[in-house]
């Protein structure tokens, strides 16, 4: 068997359920997790004859915010389409999705984004034993819940970079408040399209690993599929374009069905829903957005995780791992910054607060930042002079000891100890040594 070097070419499809109050095309509750089966349904989401859909504006706005956060363009004209396929969990025999004119066009977020579109979710198959017989039941509570799909260009080449990217996408969705993106509850589902190439070009086939609900499983599935394809190509076999699942026990992928092409779905414009227009018009009929509204949605985008990490490292002098851990939870950065604000003027630094939060997890014991600061003061056990008191004492000592200052400037670093002692004398021993040294050197070195 001839061994050849192949490079994985990986593209992603990420499905995220939006945290709207109601479903995408009807007024049924969208929160379906752990609810009694088929209790949150109506003629619209069951696809009964004569029932007409109505677009959920909040869902559209959520997709726009997500697209703007990921640097995507917003299509000024967008529409819904019918995607036809027959499966038990699809009551209408087609899914209302978007094809050629999605809400969001191309963008760049670490890699190139091809599109972000909005569609309705399907029902859910539940496999149970009923009266001793293994049965597949259908729960339609999830049917028509708003589902956002992001498609990347095939620019990943290993599983680790895929997982790093997906974790950041999950964080962005949470920071925006549009979804909890909880994989255990199925509100974030992952698919990877995997091919192998020897020269870096995109191959003429792709194998889709579908409906993975764990970062760890996806990384394993990618590794298993790459090994499978390498063996086939090394044996001179042609790889079939198909959809495959992942068997965690065997740690291999398995065939599910031949992968469809776009024409297999017989897409055509959804006749029961009007197109969505994004224009300058201030006369706003249903699903028409003005540019000012798009601007307003953009202004609602908070500081995103990557920006926050960078600022925390620069502004608070935090190590990279501290910043990473603090930012990985949407509420924790706010807690940290409020604690820093409350602790300003005390003898401990922002880094000390971060250390106690990251390594000791002390914030878990104090719902309010003020409680954490009070505890830190108790732990220090010493009533140190404040930052402002220390700065005054340092300035006075420098002004009163010209010769020592001159000696320092002439390279005699040993005089620093003398000057620290003089500052402590003024503060009657209550100066924090680290703070005194920092303030003193800052004054001496910068004049």
Automatic annotation (TrEMBL):
Reactions catalysed, semicolon-separated, are: L-glutamyl-tRNA(Gln) + L-glutamine + ATP + H2O = L-glutaminyl-tRNA(Gln) + L-glutamate + ADP + phosphate + H(+); L-aspartyl-tRNA(Asn) + L-glutamine + ATP + H2O = L-asparaginyl-tRNA(Asn) + L-glutamate + ADP + phosphate + 2 H(+)
Q: What protein name is recorded for this chain?
A: Aspartyl/glutamyl-tRNA(Asn/Gln) amidotransferase subunit B
Q: Which PANTHER family match?
A: GLUTAMYL-TRNA GLN AMIDOTRANSFERASE SUBUNIT B MITOCHONDRIAL AND PROKARYOTIC PET112-RELATED, GLUTAMYL-TRNA(GLN) AMIDOTRANSFERASE SUBUNIT B, MITOCHONDRIAL
Q: What is its EC number?
A: 6.3.5.-
User: Key word Ligase present in the record?
Assistant: yes
Specify one Pfam family: GatB_N
> Which GO BP terms, alphabetically?
glutaminyl-tRNAGln biosynthesis via transamidation; translation
The record's SUPFAM superfamilies line, in alphabetical order, gives: GatB/YqeY motif, Glutamine synthetase/guanido kinase
Q: Which organism is it from?
A: Candidatus Woesebacteria bacterium GW2011_GWA1_44_23
InterPro entries to which the protein is assigned, alphabetical: Asn/Gln-tRNA_amidoTrfase_suB/E (IPR017959), Asn/Gln-tRNA_Trfase_suB/E_cat (IPR006075), Asn/Gln_amidotransferase (IPR018027), Asn/Gln_tRNA_amidoTrase-B-like (IPR003789), GatB (IPR004413), GatB_C_1 (IPR042114), GatB_Yqey_C_2 (IPR023168), Gln-tRNA_amidoTrfase_suB_CS (IPR017958)
Which positions, given as ranges, span the membrane?
Answer: none
């Amino acid at each position: 068997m001839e061994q050849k070097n192949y490079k994985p070419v990986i593209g992603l499809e990420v499905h995220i359920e939006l945290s709207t109050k109601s479903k995408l095309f009807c007024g049924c509750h969208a929160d379906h997790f752990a609810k009694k089966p088929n209790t949150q349904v109506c003629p619209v989401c069951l696809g009964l004859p004569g029932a007409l859909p109505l677009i959920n504006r909040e869902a559209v706005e959520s997709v726009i915010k997500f697209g703007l956060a990921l640097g995507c363009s917003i299509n000024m004209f967008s529409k819904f389409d019918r995607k036809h396929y027959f499966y038990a969990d699809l009551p209408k025999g087609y899914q209302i999705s978007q094809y050629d004119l999605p809400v969001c066009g191309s963008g760049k977020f670490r890699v190139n984004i091809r599109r972000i579109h909005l569609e309705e979710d399907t029902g859910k198959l539940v496999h149970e034993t009923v009266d001793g017989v293994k049965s597949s039941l259908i729960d339609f509570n999830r049917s028509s819940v708003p589902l956002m799909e992001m498609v990347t260009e095939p620019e990943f080449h290993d599983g680790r970079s895929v997982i790093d990217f997906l974790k950041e996408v999950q964080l962005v969705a949470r920071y925006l408040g549009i979804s909890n993106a909880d994989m255990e509850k199925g509100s974030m589902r992952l698919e990877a399209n995997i091919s192998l190439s020897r020269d870096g070009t995109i191959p003429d086939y792709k194998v889709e690993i579908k409906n993975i609900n764990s970062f760890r499983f996806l990384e394993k599935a990618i590794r298993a599929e790459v090994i499978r394809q390498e063996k086939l190509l090394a044996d001179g076999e042609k790889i079939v374009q198909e959809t495959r699942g992942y068997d965690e026990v065997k740690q291999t992928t398995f065939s599910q069905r031949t992968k469809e092409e776009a024409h297999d779905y017989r897409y055509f414009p959804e006749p029961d829903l009007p197109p969505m227009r994004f224009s300058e018009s201030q006369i706003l009929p249903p699903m028409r957005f003005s540019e000012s509204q798009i601007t307003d949605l953009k202004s609602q985008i908070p500081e995103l995780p990557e920006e926050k990490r960078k600022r925390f490292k620069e502004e608070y002098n935090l190590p990279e791992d501290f910043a990473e851990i603090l930012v990985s939870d949407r509420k924790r950065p706010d807690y940290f910054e409020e604690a820093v604000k409350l602790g300003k003027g005390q003898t401990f630094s922002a880094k000390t607060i971060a250390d106690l939060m990251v390594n000791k997890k002390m914030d878990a014991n104090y719902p309010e930042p003020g409680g954490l600061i009070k505890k830190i003061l108790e732990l220090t056990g010493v009533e140190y002079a404040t930052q402002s008191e220390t700065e005054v004492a340092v300035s006075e000592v420098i002004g009163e000891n010209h010769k020592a200052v001159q000696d320092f400037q002439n390279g005699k670093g040993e005089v620093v100890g003398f000057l620290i002692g003089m500052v402590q004398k003024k503060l009657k021993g209550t100066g924090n040594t680290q703070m005194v040294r920092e303030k003193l050197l800052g004054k001496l070195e910068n004049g």
